[in-house]
């Protein structure tokens, strides 16, 4: 497990799956050998001959490969969420609390470029949403290179550079490759608990003003991180969607969205269609001269 609370690494997940599959194969070979012996014995016996051990072994391995390859494909295509694990529970929870299950997962896949979302292998599962007078909130399991995170997000009409807030206990030793730097505030207690990371200190301090800091100091989850990217306000934590955490995370994300200063909204108009910078780069990546939002 990773010490920063981000869950197992991709190679660890793959290694466990490979070992499990080979264990299954090794246990199944004796059974396949017996089945192969019966099949060949019946076929050769019908023709008046006798099956030798080599033929039985070849057939056993053929059957093993035929069964093993689909299992291997399924193991690497299925993420940690499982094919249907928790789906019924999430749907029942959502319907009993006024949430909807009709949102489109593709809206959020490859949406953000800040860590830990900077990947080309993402999948959104168990996506639910709620709309009321304070806006629309989405909750989902966001699978990043086979590692799931519980993400809750809402959107405000502006486009700003990324600002990350990471609990100091989870802070990575290295600065992000995109050039983000750690920013301190005048509140020592806040600095001892949260680390602000951004390539734009002025914008970061505009977003993380005293009222935002006061709200973040009330968070009771030591693994929860916050991201402001483009117009999205995102809170996320390791693991699959936790139904007991949906409501407090939704409350937090809406509170943070309402605390975005009006002048920040006015000075940073949203991108066309409400898209993110990463999504627009993907849309225009085939243009010969390139494009930069």
Q: What are the SSEs and their pairings?
A:
Blueprint: H1 10-46, H2 53-77, H3 87-96, E1 122-132, E2 135-144, E3 147-167, E4 181-183, H4 188-193, E5 194-198, H5 201-207, H6 210-216, E6 225-238, H7 243-258, H8 262-267, H9 277-283
Antiparallel strand pairs: 1-2, 2-3, 3-5, 3-6, 4-5
Helix pairs in contact: 1-2
Please tell me about this protein's structure.
This protein is α+β, with helices and mostly antiparallel strands and 293 residues long. The protein has two domains: 10-77, no CATH class; 87-283, no CATH class. Helices cover 41% and strands 22% of the residues. The chain has helices spanning 10-46, 53-77, 87-96, 188-193, 201-207, 210-216, 243-258, 262-267, 277-283, and strands at 122-132, 135-144, 147-167, 181-183, 194-198, 225-238. Strands 1, 2, 3, 4, 5 and 6 form a six-stranded antiparallel sheet that branches. Helix 1 (10-46) packs antiparallel against helix 2. The longest helix has 37 residues, at 10-46. It starts with 9 loop residues before the first helix and ends in a 10-residue tail after the last helix.
